[in-house]
Specification:
Length: about 325
């Protein structure tokens, strides 16, 4: 963008957004050419809608079309639109092929996992095998009740503790066991002894008699959406601050800060797993709608919810 005049940069952003939103064609990493310098392409996987976008002489070029004003931008969009149907068909075939390959890989992996499990059947005790206990996610209705009471001026510290400690326990377990998992270790969910995995698929037996397979432990950690990974800093900050929080106002601020982070993440447009799903019950769609409802509220509480979020932002 630094190579383009401001007005042309705005045109480029409009063009890029059109390709992303209307044509499902994202900008791929650029390649350098001696003739055109850095050249961008737009598409998905190995299928391109636009093969060549370059920046030269205070403008950007779509294929050979120079774009420097609204009229030429319109032509560039028309060019992309004229190629969309063919791109859409080729992309659909590619996606279908990838889905079939993924299904095949999943089936092969399941068969392999089952064969490995069958080989251990003589020594596995079903009552003590892979009994994982993860801290529960927060129920949406409890969090909503806290926010409604707060908007009405009712400081229910017992309810704030219920919400806060549920979030704290899950964040803490996700952080601590995530670190162990990354080191090839797991914590027995019966007696809390730390076990070292020698292989991903071998049977691990704790001194208390409980048995685990490390591969299944990692799988359970992921499928349960335990807090870890890219959003670890958000969860870690909450752990640190909640453990020393005192009084309703401070506890409510920390809860509100965390929910506000979910709202920012939801609206960021960044691809990947929405962090709210790590801590709140429900699907991504359900939690997204719920977070927006908390952020803006119903008609009665709308302004109070917005005020809460503004206070949270100012604190941060």
């Amino acid at each position: 963008m630094s190579f383009l005049p401001e007005n042309v940069g705005m045109l480029y952003q409009k063009f890029s957004r059109y390709l992303s939103r209307e044509c499902n064609a994202g900008c791929k990493p650029p390649k350098y050419t001696e003739t055109y310098g850095w050249v961008y392409s737009f598409g998905r996987y190995n299928i391109n809608l636009i093969n060549q976008v370059s920046m030269q002489d205070g403008a950007f070029y779509v294929q050979e079309l120079r774009v420097s004003d609204e009229a030429s931008l319109k032509k560039a969009i028309e060019t992309a639109a004229s190629m969309y149907n063919d791109y859409k068909e080729r992309l659909a075939l590619t996606v279908a092929e990838k889905i079939e390959k993924q299904k095949h890989r999943v089936q092969k992996r399941r068969e392999k996992d089952q064969d490995e499990l069958n080989a251990l059947s003589d020594v596995i005790e079903s009552e003590r095998f892979n009994k994982f206990r993860w801290s529960p996610k927060l129920r949406k209705e409890i969090l909503k009740r806290l926010y409604k009471k707060d908007a009405m001026g009712i400081q229910d510290e017992e309810l704030a503790d219920e919400v806060g400690y549920t979030l704290y326990a899950r964040c803490l377990q996700g952080r601590d066991e995530g670190r162990l998992k990354d080191e090839g270790k797991l914590k027995c969910h019966n007696c809390r002894e730390i076990l070292q995995a020698k292989t991903r698929t071998g049977l691990m037996i704790c001194t208390c008699g409980h048995q685990y397979i490390f591969r299944d432990y990692m799988k359970s950690f992921r499928t349960e959406n335990m807090p870890h990974g890219g959003a670890a800093a958000i969860f870690g900050e909450f752990i640190t601050n909640w453990s020393r929080a005192k009084g309703y106002a401070e506890k409510m601020r920390l809860i509100d800060n965390l929910i506000h982070e979910f709202h920012i993440n939801l609206n960021s447009g960044v691809k990947g797993r929405f962090v709210g799903i790590n801590l709140i019950e429900g699907t991504k769609k359900q939690i997204g709608a719920f977070i927006l409802d908390l952020a803006y509220g119903d008609t009665e509480n709308k302004e109070k919810f917005k005020s809460n979020l503004m206070k949270t932002t100012s604190v941060q």
